[in-house]
Amino acid sequence: MKTGITGGIGSGKSYVCQRLALRGIQVYDCDSAAKRLIRTSPDIQQQLTALIGPETYVDGCLNKAAVSRFLLSSEANAHAIDAIVHPAVFHDFEESGMLWMESAILYESGIDRLVDNVVVVTAPEEVRIQRIMQRDGITREKALQWIDCQWPQQQVKALADYEIVNDGIADIDSQIDRLLLLMGQKL
């Protein structure tokens, strides 16, 4: 059985995946894979440059500021980038042989169709904002802009099979233990 782990930016998905790794569960990271593929795939580089312009790559390196400006300027731009990157990530996951994946945009991207069940990691919005600001060194407004680019947490939670609350108070390890028991996996 394949399992997807999702949750909005700043919810703590990566932390939950680190805790799973300590239990011997390898989790495919869609975000890291997308970044790797954007850096290494000549096909993706060519398509992104054609879409965004010659400033997309400077001396062979991704110009994150140019891509971010393009991405955040319209929903259509975000969809155009997704149409290039998502299929490559889907294929890479299938080739990886892994049974678990982490994706912030599991439903939005359509990659949920590759998994049998979904775990959503949730956290209060203010906790998420503070985590994003600290992690990325950005303003509150920019953190909210990134949050607004994703589906609302309640919408994702309603679609998921399981929930892990990562509010900084609830015990993550006991929630993971319960999750694995419910899924019939050994601890």
Q: How many helices?
A: 10
Silhouette: globular
Main sheet properties:
5 strands, parallel
Low-confidence stretches: none
Our estimate of the beta-strand percent is 5-15%
Provide the structure class: alpha/beta
- In which range does the helix fraction lie? 55-70%
Instruction: Estimate the mean pLDDT confidence.
Output: 94
Strand arrangement, largest sheet? 2-5-1-6-7
> Termini separation (Å)?
16 Å
Query: What would you report as the Rg, rounded to the nearest angstrom?
Result: 17 Å
According to DSSP, the number of beta strands is 7
Q: Topology as H/E string? A: EHEHHEEHHEHEHHHEH
What is the topology?
Elements lengths: L2 E4 L6 H9 L5 E3 H11 L1 H11 L4 E2 L2 E2 L1 H10 L1 H22 L3 E3 L3 H4 L7 E6 L2 H12 L3 H9 L4 H7 L2 E4 L6 H11 L5
Helix pairs in contact: 2-5, 3-5, 4-5, 7-8
Report on this structure.
The protein is α/β, with parallel strands linked by helices. 57% of the residues lie in helices and 13% in strands. The protein is built from ten helices and seven strands. The protein has helices at residues 13-21, 30-40, 42-52, 64-73, 75-96, 106-109, 125-136, 140-148, 153-159, 172-182; strands at 3-6, 27-29, 57-58, 61-62, 100-102, 117-122, 162-165. The strands form two sheets. It has a five-stranded parallel beta sheet, with helices on both faces. The chain has a two-stranded antiparallel sheet with strand order 3-4. A hairpin with a 2-residue loop joins β3 (57-58) and β4 (61-62). α2 packs across α5 (75-96). It is globular, with a radius of gyration of 17 Å. The model has no long low-confidence stretch (mean pLDDT 94).
